């Protein structure tokens, strides 16, 4: 069963949909103003009924807005260190080229927002928690 994840922000949100095995089906940064339209369209395309949302600064506002999406269970999870981890995931997916290869990626700032990578991390954390609880 597919699961969606959201890293809410004031102007932009990271969004991702993963299958039950943790494979990314889609990930992108969306405008906060278009949150409901984007989530509704993705729900129709990918058939998820659960959305994991980070508990950051604008989380409560986003949770309120997500009540407009029918038949969507919103699950709040801790965002601790996700931005830092997302930067590392960005560099794995987009290795530096040219002279940037000489500088450690830990000293570089990704040239684009990494909110979508945060969403992937949130979804995978949730799937891992779910697997652990089934194993107990």
Task: Summarize the model shown.
It contains four helices and five strands; from the N terminus they run βββαβαβαα.
Give the domain tally.
1
Strand content: 15-25%
Number of helices: 4
Strand order of the largest sheet: 3-2-1-4-5
The CATH architecture comes to 2-Layer Sandwich
Distance between the termini: 21 Å
Helix share bin: 25-40%
InterPro entries: RNaseH-like_sf, YqgF/RNaseH-like_dom, YqgF/RNaseH-like_dom_sf
Protein name: YqgF/RNase H-like domain-containing protein
Organism: Selenomonas ruminantium
Tell me about this structure.
The chain is α/β, with parallel strands linked by helices. It has a single domain, classed as YqgF/RNase H-like domain (Nucleotidyltransferase, domain 5), CATH 3.30.420.140. The protein has four helices and five strands. It has a five-stranded mixed beta sheet with strand order 3-2-1-4-5, with helices on both faces. A hairpin with a 4-residue loop joins β1 and β2. α3 packs across α4. The longest helix is centred in the last third of the chain and has 21 residues. The model has no long low-confidence stretch (mean pLDDT 96).
Keywords:
4 helices, globular, 136 residues, single chain, Nucleotidyltransferase, domain 5, alpha/beta, 39% helix
Question: Secondary-structure map with pairings?
Answer:
Blueprint: E1 3-7, E2 12-18, E3 24-31, H1 35-46, E4 50-54, H2 59-66, E5 73-77, H3 82-93, H4 115-135
Parallel strand pairs: 1-4, 4-5
Antiparallel strand pairs: 1-2, 2-3
Helix pairs in contact: 3-4
């Amino acid at each position: 069963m597919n699961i969606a994840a959201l890293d809410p922000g004031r102007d932009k949100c990271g969004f991702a949909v993963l299958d039950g095995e943790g494979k990314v089906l889609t990930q992108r940064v969306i405008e906060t103003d278009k949150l409901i339209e984007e989530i509704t369209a993705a729900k129709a395309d990918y058939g998820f009924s659960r959305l994991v949302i980070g508990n950051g600064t604008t989380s409560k506002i986003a949770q309120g807005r997500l009540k407009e999406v029918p038949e969507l269970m919103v699950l709040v999870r801790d965002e601790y260190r996700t931005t830092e981890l997302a930067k590392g995931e960005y560099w794995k997916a987009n290795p530096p080229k040219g002279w940037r290869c000489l500088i450690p990626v830990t000293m570089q700032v990704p040239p684009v927002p990494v909110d979508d990578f945060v969403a992937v991390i949130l979804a995978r954390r949730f799937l891992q928690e779910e697997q652990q609880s089934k194993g107990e």
